[in-house]
Amino acid sequence: MRQSHIGKSDEWPYSALRCGCFCIFILLIPCIIWGSISASSYVRYRNIRKNYNNTACMLLNYTVLKHECTFCASQLCSSNTCFNEQFLVTYPISNKTYITSVFVSFDKDKIHQQSQV
């Protein structure tokens, strides 16, 4: 007695479709989770970014040190005048306290323009 394959050939496209849908569903779950985490993070940090305001800082002290720098390219070296700068500044933050910070730059070929505002 011979077995008939008529019913099995009709099922093939549907089983492939089910398998494809299952694979897409499995790949879609991590994307949905990642998207919801990203959206949640965006909303949380959006409010923090809104709190940043332009602020002024007060320069408490400015120090510049002039010295000679040697720069070498291949085997050719040259000596130039360089500047190291140090800025001591203070500025207010959102809770009305003041932060004091030091900014330093090394071996610059020009100093910052000194002007009073």
Task: Provide key terms for this protein.
three-stranded antiparallel sheet; 117 residues; 2 domains
List the helices and strands and how they pair.
Layout: H1 6-50, E1 58-73, E2 76-92, E3 98-108
Antiparallel strand pairs: 1-2, 2-3
Describe it:
With 117 residues, the protein is an alpha+beta fold. The chain has 2 domains: 1-52; 58-108, no CATH class. It has one helix at 6-50; strands spanning 58-73, 76-92, 98-108. Strand 2 and strand 3 form a beta hairpin.
Number of helices: 1
Report helical residue fraction. Answer: 25-40%
Number-wise, the strands total 3
Strand residue content:
35-45%
Q: Could you tell me the radius of gyration in angstroms? A: 33 Å
Mean pLDDT: 79
Strand order of the largest sheet: 1-2-3
Major β-sheet profile:
3 strands, antiparallel
Structural class: alpha+beta
Give the overall silhouette: elongated
Q: Order of SSEs, N→C?
A: HEEE
Tell me the domain tally: 2
Low-confidence segments: none
Q: Termini, distance in Å?
A: 103 Å
Concise summary:
The chain is an alpha+beta fold and 117 residues long. 38% of the residues lie in helices and 38% in strands.
